[in-house]
Write a structure and sequence with these properties.
The protein has helices spanning 9-19, 49-52, 79-94, 106-118, 135-142, 152-180, 195-210, 239-250, 274-285, 289-301, 320-330, 335-344, 377-392, 479-487, 496-502, 510-522, 537-545, 549-552, 554-568, 574-593; strands spanning 2-6, 23-25, 28-31, 34-38, 44-46, 73-75, 97-101, 125-127, 146-147, 216-224, 227-231, 254-266, 398-409, 412-423, 459-460, 463-470, 477-478, 526-529, 532-535. The protein is an alpha+beta fold. The strands form four sheets. It has a seven-stranded mixed sheet with strand order 2-3-4-1-7-8-9, sandwiched between helices. Strands 15-12-13-14-11-10-16 form a seven-stranded antiparallel sheet, covered by helices on one side. Strands 17-19-18 form a three-stranded antiparallel sheet. The longest helix is centred in the first third of the chain and has 29 residues, at 152-180. Mean pLDDT is 93; it is low at 437-445.
């Protein structure tokens, strides 16, 4: 009998239906030589301190750092979990082969391996790797089962992550709580490998804004033929200097010195990975990262989109032949959007979107071709974000003509720019949607004005204007900008190419960033203020209490994340990663204990 172990009952039902295991039993399905059972996510966890030594159960600085020689796991105490685990253990004992059908990622690998270890599995184990929950994808994956050993590095990376979080979280939380908590206070000062640097980002930004001292400056603009020209000097530091320029230019005509027209193209944005989808959903609909993750998971389980917990925006080359059939299927629900592509006969294929070298376990999120039915408002919104982004990569580029006009008034140089769209291309897919990036408060689009025909040498009267402004602080984080900062290790990055390159050193994983943010909310370290996120006084106090910069460093945590990725590829030793972390924690304990 072949035993399949899935991560949840709904997935077990879908897989069972495809392989012929549909007869319901207590805790599993059976049929066609298969048994299909399930967990409910995490069934096992790392042992707690008291499981290693009874004295470690007591919170005392004398027992820090707690660094077990060998880490162990145990089944969680929840009665429902223990009952289902008992069924799994009996099924494993009766199986001739086990197929790991867990979630196709690092966390899913860890969950299933721990269950099999605790169930004392002694038979061969194979791995089912799904990027989509469609029946066709399930059948294909069963025809391409891999030996468990091919995913050992993935497991080692997940194990190193879990142990690393235990080492730092348990020790640092007890250390700072015991050292700095008041005697009558039972509050725990929670410290974590990802949550603390994330909180530090929020606190640093909040305090930077709080302490910001605005400085005045002046800008000079003038209107000629209903087009606004700006002084190329930009900011004038004093009002006297700016008024002197106004006095000079008011007495003379404006002369056009140069007219440049340049044609340009703008391609569709990259496909979605999980983080960029969460960012877009927050910007456009105000959805939290956690809500978006839950929604995309629902769409995946309903077989409407591919695997969502991904960190790449590329498709492998072998997906390209499947794209036209997907669009042909989607035509039935979205004829207006799909017709131009079907009429073209052949879809274009650009390296910006198709690059097998940029894809490891899973590709970017795209529709499966199954038609959506009975979606709620949020599901529909997220699905259409993915749908339009997918269709857009096959549409022509947006084409525009950029006009730059230089002018002179009393030897003061001015400049005006305008942009005229020649062909909307992929933008026509978004004709009914407002570009949120253009609605940012205080931002003035410099190239949106319509330009009349200018001729070099022409001149005439103009209307100068002096504008007094103030320097502005950075903006508070929203969930969108915080996710961006986590992905790029705190760097302010908008360029798609650079952002892609920096992902390797982002903090947290795409699948866990939403959970980290939610943990900070639940622990009352941060709160919402409209769309913005601000730290609470408790969160501010915690960051000020932690003097060790490594614990708070986004860059340092990004380096750890990079090493975990290397472990996944077999290019770095998990033992070395944990040795470095143990050394750091040992030094941290000594440093904090010795502080007055």
């Amino acid at each position: 009998m072949i035993l399949c172990i899935c991560e949840k009952p709904s997935v077990a039902r879908d897989i069972g239906a495809v392989i012929g295991a549909t007869a319901p039993k207590q805790g599993y399905l059976e049929g066609n030589g298969y048994r299909v059972t399930w967990t409910y996510g995490h069934f096992c966890t790392l042992k707690e301190p008291g499981d290693y030594y009874p004295q470690w159960q007591q919170w005392s600085l004398a027992y820090l750092p707690m660094l077990p020689e060998r880490f162990g796991i145990k089944v969680m105490k929840d009665p429902g979990i223990r009952q289902q685990f008992g069924i799994i253990k009996e099924l494993v004992a009766d199986a001739t082969e086990v197929i790991n059908c867990g979630d196709a990622g690092q966390e899913g690998e860890l969950i299933q391996r721990w269950v099999l270890q605790m169930a004392e599995c002694r038979v061969p184990v194979k791995r089912l790797w799904l990027s989509s929950m469609t029946n066709e994808a399930i059948r294909k994956a069963f025809g391409e089962l891999k030996p468990e050993a091919e995913y050992t590095n993935l497991y080692h990376a997940g194990l190193a992550r879990a142990i690393g979080d235990w080492i730092l979280g348990i020790n640092a939380t007890r250390l700072y709580t015991l050292k700095y908590r008041k005697s009558n206070d039972r509050k725990v000062l929670s410290v974590g490998r990802v949550q603390t640097p994330t909180l530090s980002l929020i606190v640093d930004r909040y305090e930077e804004i709080r302490d910001f001292k605005p400085e005045p400056y002046w800008e000079i603009k003038t209107v000629y033929r209903e087009v606004t020209f700006s002084s190329t000097k930009g900011k004038y530091a004093t009002e006297e200097e700016a008024k002197e320029v106004i006095r000079r230019i008011s007495a003379e005509e404006l002369t056009i010195t140069k007219v440049t027209k340049k044609k340009g193209k703008e391609g569709a944005p990259r496909l979605f990975d999980l983080t960029s989808l969460q960012i877009e959903a927050n910007k456009r609909y105000g959805l939290s990262a956690d809500r978006t993750l839950a929604t995309i998971q629902e769409l995946y389980e309903r077989k409407l989109v591919t695997y969502p917990r991904v960190d790449t925006t590329y498709l492998p080359d072998d997906v390209y032949p499947n794209c036209m059939p997907i669009i042909q299927s989607l035509y039935r629900a979205y004829p207006e959007q799909c017709t131009p592509l079907l009429q073209s006969g052949k879809l274009r294929k650009l390296k910006k979107y198709f690059d097998s070298s940029k894809v490891t376990d899973h590709h970017a999120i795209i529709p499966t071709g199954n038609l959506p039915q009975f979606l709620d408002r949020t599901q529909q919104a997220i699905y259409e974000l993915i749908l339009l982004r997918f269709l857009a990569i096959f549409y022509p580029d947006l084409e525009f003509e950029q006009t730059t006009v230089m002018a002179d008034v009393a030897k003061i140089e001015f400049k005006a720019t305008g942009r005229v769209v020649v062909s909307e291309g992929w933008k026509q897919l978004y004709s009914n949607q407002t570009d949120k990036s253009e609605e940012e408060e205080g931002e003035e689009p410099s190239d949106k004005q319509v330009m009349p025909a200018f001729v070099k040498g022409e001149h005439g009267p103009h209307r100068p204007d002096l504008l007094q402004k103030e320097t502005r602080p950075p903006k508070l984080y929203t969930e969108a900008t915080l996710l961006n900062a986590m992905e790029t290790a705190g760097k302010l990055v908008d360029n798609e190419e650079l952002k892609e390159a920096m992902k390797a050193k982002g903090i947290g994983r795409p699948s866990t960033r939403a959970a980290i943010i939610e943990i900070l909310f639940k622990r009352n370290y941060i709160e919402r203020k409209g769309k913005s996120i601000i730290p609470t006084q408790i969160g501010i106090d915690l960051i000020h209490t932690i003097q060790n910069e490594q614990i708070k460093s986004v860059e340092m945590t990004g380096e750890w994340e990079y090493k975990l990725r290397l472990i996944d590829r077999g290019a770095y030793s998990p033992a070395q990663f944990l040795h470095e972390l143990k050394l750091m924690v040992s030094q941290l304990v000594q440093e904090v204990i010795c502080m007055p």
